[in-house]
Design brief:
Shape: globular
CATH class of the largest domain: Alpha Beta
Strand order of the largest sheet: 3-2-1-4-5-12-10-11
CATH architecture of the largest domain: 3-Layer(aba) Sandwich
Oligomer: single chain
Distance between the termini: 32 Å
Structural class: alpha/beta
Number of strands: 12
Helix content: 25-40%
Radius of gyration: 18 Å
Strand content: 25-35%
CATH topology of the largest domain: Rossmann fold
Length: 252
């Protein structure tokens, strides 16, 4: 699956204008609705609940949950994402606090009923920073609170689906993607050539760290979090080898 850049990480004006639409083509809005509905029901969220959305992107979950009256703190490294969340929250008068911060070193205020890190975002971080984030999450969860992680680069997923080179087209933008599967630490390094309809191109690189389910469970446990369940379809299908996505639920 190609990983579209954020608007502030591209130079071509066409790509800047299309970044949200590209993301929506990769992750359709009905998936966000299903994920947010699952969170509300499974974690018994209410207007009295507090949710922390780490690596919130343009706020698809933060905004969806806040529209249910749930208070959300939305954190991301990138200004364009946070500005978009703030614009939408102000426009709709939603209970969202957008914060731009280095997620690996971010220390939130207070305690939360639920922390989420969706859209494969936790796999952007190397093992050292991943352990730091998990420890911070544990330190700021209420007793009995949960941490929900969505990933599509578990080793149990990647080993079956890995392709070193492929073409795709998303919302009129063509992607030529080349990936290398590397070790020490285990990761995928990807170079994507984006080609706009006018023929202009831009090259972006990315790294996704690959952890096995056992490694994730070990890191969570050492942060004080107990892995309760892993789904491929939240609340409906337990994860099995080779499924395309995983949702890890851990509890403090």
């Amino acid at each position: 699956m190609p990983k579209p850049p954020s608007k502030e990480n591209v130079n071509n004006d066409y790509f800047k204008g299309q970044y949200k639409e590209i993301w929506r083509a990769v992750i359709p809005e009905d998936l966000t609705v299903k994920e947010s509905d699952f969170m509300t029901k499974h974690f018994s969220l209410s207007p009295n609940s507090r949710v922390l959305d780490l690596m919130c992107g343009y706020g698809r979950h933060a905004l969806a949950l806040s529209r249910k009256g749930i208070s959300v703190t939305a954190v991301d490294n990138l200004a364009d994402y946070i500005n978009e969340v703030k614009r939408m929250a102000d426009q709709e008068h939603l209970p969202v606090e957008p914060i731009r911060a280095d997620v690996a070193s971010y220390k939130p205020d207070g305690f939360f009923d639920l922390v989420i890190c969706m859209g494969n975002s936790l796999n952007f971080f190397d093992p050292h920073d991943t352990r730091k984030i998990m420890t911070t999450v544990s330190d700021h969860l209420k007793p009995g609170g949960h941490f929900l992680i969505n990933t599509w680069t578990l080793a149990e997923i990647v080993i079956k689906h890995f392709r070193d080179r492929y073409w795709s087209e998303i919302n009129g933008v063509k992607f030529l993607t080349e990936s290398k599967y590397l070790f020490h630490p285990t990761r995928m390094e990807t170079e994507s050539i984006m080609i706009a309809p006018d023929g202009k191109t831009e090259v972006k690189t990315g790294v996704d760290y690959v952890y096995s389910l056992s490694e994730m469970e070990w890191m969570l446990r050492n942060a004080g979090l107990l892995l309760e369940e892993v789904y491929s379809i939240p609340g409906k299908k337990i994860f099995s080898l080779g499924d395309a996505r995983a949702y890890l639920i851990s509890k403090k």
